Amino acid sequence: MKKPHIVILGAGYGGLVTTKKLEKLLRSGEATVTLINKHSYHYITTQLHKIGVGTAPDRKIALSIPELVNDSKTRFMTGTVTNVNAESQVVFLESGEEISYDYLVIALGFEVATFGIPGIKEHAFGIRSFRSSKAIYHQITKQLTLYKEDHDPSRLTFAVAGGGFTGIEMLGELAEGLPKLCEEHGVPFENVKIIGIEAAESLIPFFGDELIAYTSHIMESYNIDIFTSTKIKSCTENAVQLENGLEIPCRTLIWSCGVKANSLLERFGLPLVKGKLPVDKNLLVKGTENIFCIGDCALFMKDEKTALPPTAQVAMQEADVCGKNLTALIRGENLKAFEYHHKGSVASIGDRTAVGKVGSFTMSGWFAAIMKRVIENRYLFVLGGPSLILKQTLLLKREQLSVQTKQH
Ligand SMILES: Cc1cc2nc3c(=O)[nH]c(=O)nc-3n(C[C@H](O)[C@H](O)[C@H](O)COP(=O)(O)OP(=O)(O)OC[C@H]3O[C@@H](n4cnc5c(N)ncnc54)[C@H](O)[C@@H]3O)c2cc1C
Asked: Which residues contact 283 (CB under 8 A, 6 or more apart)?
């Protein structure tokens, strides 16, 4: 009898953890598994800000997928998915290849949401992928180089839009990483301005007064100018225009104001809600019997009104159940209903401090920074056990990853 073919689209948090789960659960000969991803590396999104400022080696953040999967159990293909035909059960790749499937997992992740604000798409830098984070690094070093020629202060103004998790992580990293980059480029760090712009009344408004005060204090100690209750109206190549009429001369605006599901989903002919694929309690796309969707592409309703947020934590927990349910479907067993258990959140501010909340317990400072590392290592453990943690900690491979970045 022909073995069922499981095809997983996207090797991010959702796709890769599903793959690892299937490698554990499926017996030899039960199914063939193909994992398809745009690039041959998997990036640790939660640390992309480090690539943006050059404070971590490439291979610490971008892990080789062929080294993470077991090639006797999973066939890995580098390829860009361009469409899916759910009726004929075929995935189309940019290369012209067509891959038939019996079961499909859609885990194609997110895109940056720009909310139609003029100039953001063209001139701002999103923190979306390894490549887009490298583009930030190239922009910073380019501006430092050009500053030496024209002494234009807008080249040394680095603004971050969005004071949520990603925003404060980026601000902290800029504050810690820019002094070294300035020294390397012979530019006085005293001339650098780092600015945070947030539409809400405070940074990380969802974290409570104590952590907000702590974060604001750290930003102040780093000389970062924070504009709260401030909305961006538009942006050009060399300035950011605010709704309050102010214009900030600035050539590097880093955009971290929200994400939306991969717009590729619009082509699949499956019904979308808010740009995402609504899934049932078993994570099957509603109205289908063989297509799962997990992570940032999936709309899973926690209750009648609230959807689960787009986080790595959600994607990984969904992947665990998705792997179990694929195995159950193949064996003709009952499917498991997905239940999300929030384990807490921690955001780093540079290397030495962080803020976080686990249940009702809040934490800040070095203890939170250690917790952040524990969380990152736990993820490495899921992907490759203790040997991957050791390998990434020692990181013997220091070679740069060659990627093409968007030129602004
Ligand atoms: C800067 C930043 C920091 C974050 N920090 C945290 C955090 O601290 N904690 C937390 O829980 N969450 C965090 N998140 C959110 C988290 O990263 C996402 O929720 C998570 O990555 C979603 O997982 P996913 O599997 O749905 O998608 P992704 O991890 O984005 O994976 C999608 C994969 O699909 C691939 N892909 C996309 N399009 C195609 C295509 N056409 N063909 C082939 N492959 C394709 C991509 O290359 C990628 O490998 C952060 C996000 C950002 C941007």
From this structure: 292, 293, 294, 298, 300, 318, 321, 322, 325, 338
Closest ligand 1 atom, residue 14 Cα? 25
pLDDT digits (tens, 9 = 90+) for 154-193: 999 999 999 999 999 999 999 999 999 999 999 999 999 9
State the Cα–Cα distance between residues 358 and 211, nearest whole angstrom. Answer: 13
Q: ipTM strictly over 0.95?
A: yes
Q: Is the dihedral of CA 277, 273, 342, 305 positive or negative?
A: negative
Q: 67, 97, 98, 169: which is the annotated catalytic residue?
A: 169
For residue 110, what are the β-bridge partners? 261
Q: Between vectors from CA 310 to CA 329 and to CA 14, what angle results, nearest 5°?
A: 40
List phi, psi (to 5°) of 260: -135, 165
Task: Give first-to-last CA distance, the chain, whole Å.
Answer: 54
As a dihedral over the C-alpha atoms of residue 284, residue 286, residue 289, residue 291, rounded to 10 degrees, the angle is: -50
Pick from 75, 58, 57, 56: nearest CA to 66: 75
Go through the domains of the chain in sequence order and give each one's CATH number. Answer: 5-112+259-340 (3.50.50.100), 120-255 (3.50.50.60)
- pLDDT tens digit sequence for 75-127: 999 999 999 999 999 999 999 999 999 999 999 999 999 999 999 999 999 99
User: Quick check: helix, strand or coil at residue 284?
Assistant: strand
Active site residue 169: yes
The dihedral built from the CA positions of residue 133, 137, 139 and 140, taken in this order, carries a sign that is: positive
Q: Which of 43, 46, 106, 403, when mutated, tests ligand 1's pocket best, judged by the most ligand atoms within 8 Å of its CB?
A: 46
